[in-house]
Amino acid sequence: MTLAHFSFLVDAIALGDFSKSYPNSATPGWLYRDRGYVTDKPVASRVEMPSPDHMLIRTFYEGITTLGDETVAYEENFRWAGDRRLRSVLAWDKEHQLTLMGQYMEYKLAA
Fold it and tell me: How many alpha carbons fall within 13 Å on the CB side of residue 51?
């Protein structure tokens, strides 16, 4: 994600207009969580599934978070391959600096 794209997403969040933020998603929607990853408060995340084996979740926060800064954007990317799931996580602060980057793979143990 470029800084220009990130700025556009933040502006769209501030204006409450997601229709311009995700024009190419096959199935855009909302995910409501009773608490966020970096806050104890409820959050709404934007969900896209560009393909059957790929899910993208974007969450925007305001104020001080459990990461200790004012994280603005949090992005989770999920890819499925059989019984395996690859998850990548990125977070940006209010200055558009990357503050968190992680990636791991999970295995399905039982159905």
Answer: 7
Residue with the two structure tokens 């899910």: 55
- Give the span between the Cα atoms of 50 and 58, in whole angstroms: 13
Structure pTM?
Answer: 0.66
Distance CA 91, CA 101 (A): 7
User: Dihedral (C-alpha) 97, 46, 37, 4: value to the nearest 10 degrees?
Assistant: 0
Query: DSSP label at 15?
Result: H
CB 100 within 8 A of CB 67: yes
pLDDT 10s digits, 47-84: 888 888 898 999 888 766 666 666 678 899 999 988 89
The strand ranges marked E within 36-83 are 43-51, 54-60, 71-81
Non-local (6+) Cβ contacts of 52 within 8 A are none
Q: Which two tokens stand for residue 1?
A: 């994600």
